[in-house]
Amino acid sequence: KRAYLFLLFFGLLFFLPGLSSLPSTDRDESRFAQASKQMLETGNYVDIRFQEVPRYKKPIGIYWLQAAAVKVAGQPLEVVWPYRIPSILGALATVLLTCFFGRRFFNRRVGLLAGVLVASCLLLGVEARLAKTDAVLLATITAMQGLLGLLYLERHERLKGRWPLVLLFWLACGAGVLIKGPLPPVIALATILTLAVVDRQLRLLRTIRPLVGLSILAAMVLPWFIAIQNATGGEFMQKAIYEDFLPKLLAGQESHGAP
User: Fold this and answer.
1) Which residues make Cβ contacts (< 8 Å) with residue 27, sequence separation at least 6?
2) pTM score of the predicted model
3) Does 238 have pLDDT greater than 80?
4) How far apart are CA 169 and CA 39, in angstroms?
5) Which DSSP helix (H) or strand (E) runs through 95?
6) How many of the other CB atoms lie within 10 Å of CB of 138?
């Protein structure tokens, strides 16, 4: 417990300064915050709009989190720092999860050191102060991959004892999909296939119970996806997958020099 309390304090020491005083410093941050602001103003929590233009680059998850944070903070909608609350919470969760899985995979010392290294990471410190998807996405993928690691280590144990891990793995995966689309399942699948090649068996794939898991994933994602597809006449899929996600896998986009 002391290690987690120390890391929580250490993370806040790194992430809090400037959270409320910095103006919007990234063009994407301004767009995410504005879209969440319009969601609060209109009461439409299905469609995503940036001013008068549809914003169908990312799923709904981050907008819901930002809208909830603004409501809890009770600040005027024009104040930017409440929109950053999910990001700083995602960064702190990443630090604590890294420590937890480091302790489980190795020992207490490794877990604490890993948490300190993540908390002091410059890029995570930047993302913790921006109202974007990346810090929250990192938290979901850290949880997903850590749970996958535990399932891999315990794949020979009784199924009954693994069910909580399986459930949490798919919940983390579903949360990641609501934040960033298909990226988390792609990462998990790549990990599973790599381990299958190394081990020359598919035991891990059977361990995560894909049929049950995909049902959980569908229950989390499909209700909003169907609603947005109906509201936009299928435009969301066209823009989010074919104009945003897939091009980024094939070439550099938006000033990035590589996929």
Assistant:
1) none
2) 0.91
3) no
4) 30
5) helix 85-105
6) 25
